[in-house]
Fold this sequence. Notes:
The chain is mainly alpha-helical. The chain contains 6 helices and no strands. It has helices at residues 12-28, 37-42, 48-63, 74-127, 133-149, 153-156. The two termini are 32 Å apart. 0% of the residues are buried.
Amino acid sequence: MAYQNIAAALSPQDIQEIKAALQTVQKKMPFLITLSTEERRKLLKMGDKSLAFVNNSVTAAQSNREILPATFDVEELVRDYQLVTALTELLISVQQLAEQVDDTLMAVGSEAMSSSLTVYDYVKTASKKTPGLKTVAEQLGERFKAIKGRPTKAASGS
Length: 158
């Protein structure tokens, strides 16, 4: 792996400050919404190619207002386009942060599991000769009981 062992900690104060910062970000965008699956499905989608189309449409609308109906709000189109570009920029930053948090969580989780498996192996071995460790070994072994009882893919025909 390309990373070194992660030796870091977040204090309760750090966590609260990070959450407060995220709340500040949300407060700066009170217009954010949550769409249902059905609403998402029904909406027109705008990808990278569509962004250029919308940009060109904004230019065309601003340059040719006389061909548009009087009820068409060119300024609203401009605001929508500007918000799309701003949110796109922010989304990239948020996605990069989310990816880093997710990757770090996966790596640290792997480190914790690996170390815990080592502890479990030592506890299992020591429980055979050390009084009081049998209960600890059984408790740690609970994590693997469901796995042992499950049929394998080959046995279940999957």
